[in-house]
Here is the input.
Amino acid sequence: MSNILIIHAHPEPQSLSSALKDLAVAHLRADGHEVKVSDLYAMNWKAVADANDFSAPQDTERLKYIRESKRAFKAGTQTNDIRAEQDKLLWADAVLFSFPLWWYGMPAIMKGWFDRVFANGFGYGVGEHGPERWGDRYGGVNGSLEDVLWPIQHGMLFYPGMEVMQPFAVYGSDRLDPDGWRGVAEKFKDRLSGLFTDAPIPYRTQNGGHYDRDRRLKPGLGDQESGTRIHLVQPGDPEEILFGRVRRLVS
Here is the structure.
């Protein structure tokens, strides 16, 4: 017998997601398992991570969420809802996440569950950090930024019809000193100045002639790249046909 936690996020009890959640509960209990369910909508779960998550913040003038999260976890001053979900996770031998896929991601209420429950010292920032060791979790091996941002840039922005510019990223922002800020500010101003002149990310369009009827890339396209980059127009690719017009994206 095992302890199983289900984190469920759907506003409609009669939805397919909710039906599958109910089926999972019944089936797992019939198999002898202990099951707990965190039904986030039914719980009216607070999705926003903010200063109200800390009953005794150390810095009352400026919220530094990561630092306050670590202090609150160590001091036992997290809010009751956060602590209750952490206790459930520690109880569980397995965790199931039940949710619909909305705009290429989980519903906001479930993302807020991760934002608040996976506190510093609980979900990350655990263990020794040094030159040769970076904690007891998977560390900072996050993959390429373009893959991380793919659901946002390609799914949430390009799909509705926007041209998407390369992201402006600041790495290690929590360790930025005044000199570093000045450098970031200058680079950001350069990016802003090129907002209407810099080339957007050359995503292939669905109806531009590069995909077949099953929306798979035609043979020979994307061979020079891997991952999500196969969906970028590459040098030497054929022209795309858009709404009766021909557009050369990369020459």
